[in-house]
Write a structure and sequence with these properties.
Layout lengths: L35 H20 L5 E2 L2 E8 L4 H15 L5 E9 L9 H8 L4 E5 L2 H8 L7 H18 L4 E3 L4 H15 L8 E3 L6 E3 L7 H11 L15 H16 L3 H9 L17 H13 L1
Parallel strand pairs: 2-3, 2-5, 3-4, 5-7
Antiparallel strand pairs: 1-2, 6-7
Bound molecules: iron/sulfur cluster.
Iron/sulfur cluster binds next to helix 5.
Length: about 300
């Protein structure tokens, strides 16, 4: 039995929204719905998050001390979910990691600056809010009406790496989920000419910041329901007027359609990414096809 299996099921006659759990949970969970449905959802997300952390060896001690993680908090449903789930795991004693939430205010027009600091202060969460006007850089560099997201994400990532170093964090932790990984896989497959997805854990090019994605097994729909039930104060990511690549939306629709027609495909595809047979693909760098000729000669000699 895993430690998460010991999480108690809710009382049958629970109130719709409980206010009396202050001693038993992180402050963020004090007023969560006390319904069976929400508790099942929370437990499933916790189990999936814990599984990814274990499978990809994300947590641990370093030089005899607990790790420090910088959590990228954009104000979207996924990053709020990531923060809440990691705090929940830590509260339960299942994640011995120091957590710092970090929001990069990129200077998008009408960005509501007060929302995240108020939310984080109210819930007693260690955080750093950083203002860097990457929006002006993007609008100066790119022609009008172009899609900003790619450059915007790259600039944001660079700042998050820098802040991770400054905060002496062992990992930058991001809220990408199962669907993000699958969409990236199909983007690369259909448009990039390569088999590659979004890894649950990777080292940056400079080799000094680990990037982890503990929600790699979590379903986007679960995170959306969780965010709604938790009443996170969501900040939309399209304040800048840009829109994410159309191709990603096409992939999302395609994968969603597959799942509707053949339920379980998303889980199967995620399992496939962890079960690779280079000998049954066509990458000559990964598999020694030429060497098969030698092997057949050796085997033929042994049999004669
Ligand atoms: S929608 Fe705007 S803020 Fe969000 S990633 Fe794209 S360019 Fe950046």
């Amino acid at each position: 039995m895993s430690m998460l299996d010991s999480i108690e099921e809710p009382a049958p006659a629970a109130l719709a929204r409980s206010e009396d759990q202050s001693d038993n949970c992180h402050p963020m969970f004090r007023a969560v719905p006390s319904t069976v449905g929400f508790n099942k959802l929370r437990k499933r997300l916790l189990r999936n998050t814990r599984q990814a952390i274990d499978d990809f060896v994300m947590a641990g001690t370093k030089d005899g001390r607990n790790q420090r993680w910088l959590i990228g908090l954009s104000g979207g449903k996924d990053s709020y979910g990531l923060l809440a789930l990691l705090l929940d795991l830590k509260w339960r004693g299942l994640l011995p990691v120091e957590l710092i939430a970090c929001n990069l205010d990129q200077g998008q027009p009408n960005f509501p600056k007060h929302i995240l600091p108020e939310f984080l202060d109210r819930n007693g969460i260690a955080h750093r809010i950083e203002y860097r006007d990457t929006y002006s850089i993007i609008t100066e560099k790119l022609p009008e009406n172009s899609t900003y997201c790619s450059l915007c994400s790259r600039l944001r990532r660079g700042h998050l790496y820098r802040i991770s170093r400054e905060e002496e964090c062992d990992a930058l932790v991001l809220g990408h989920h199962r669907e993000d990984i699958l969409e990236t896989f199909f983007m690369n497959f259909f448009h990039g000419g390569r088999l590659a997805a979004m890894p649950p854990k990777l080292l940056n090019d400079e080799g000094d910041v680990m990037v982890c994605r503990p929600l790699a097994y979590c379903a986007e729909n679960d995170l959306a329901k969780f965010a709604e039930a938790m009443e996170f104060p969501i900040i939309p990511c399209d304040l800048c007027g840009s829109q994410d690549g159309l191709q990603r939306n096409v992939m999302k629709a395609m994968i969603g359609d597959m799942e509707r027609r053949m339920p379980g495909r998303k889980d199967s595809m995620i399992r496939a990414l962890a079960n690779v047979r280079p000998s049954h693909l066509m990458d000559r760098e990964l598999h020694d096809f030429a060497g098969l000729n030698e092997q057949v000669n050796i085997q033929a000699k042994e049999q004669s």
